[in-house]
Amino acid sequence: xxxxxxxxxxxxxxxxxxxxxxxxxxxxxQWLWTHGYRYRLNVKGVPGKPDIVMRRYRTAIFVNGxxxxxxxxxxxxxxxxxxxxxxxxxxxxxxxxxxxxxQVLKExxxxxxxxxxxxLVTKLFETTMQQVxxxxxxxxxxxxxxxIKEYIKVDEDAFQMAAEADADYGF
Length: 171
Ligand SMILES: [Zn+2]
Fold this sequence. Notes:
alpha+beta; Endonuclease, Chain A; 4-stranded mixed β-sheet; about 50% helix; globular; binds zinc ion
């Protein structure tokens, strides 16, 4: 496999990078900020350098482009017609790397939220962010008091991880 892109490939890349709805990460940040959440960006030393790190909620948010990160079953994720193998390999590698990063984070008690660009289009944005808010609160509550587990719907695995991580943040 070669890393050298043809003109066409480069064009495809750039047009996807700079597509007009490509500021989803910014939108997410703004929403969180105006709703009173505080976070840090691209923290070094956190696996996968999440786009947004919310320490209080022990949550890492990744805002993923559907093409580069290979959003399965998504209509924004279509293989270019030429050099299919090249793209398949490249995107598969991204997917694997993502998976590994998420895994490490979860093993360390972090909640991983992956927001796909297709979920952040204007029409769906508010709904998506409301779901994010619910997940943040649930995870935070589960971290504070394991007894609350019975009253809120939290992914059982996530809950286990939260319980383990308890000491680190002195809740
Ligand atoms: Zn998608």
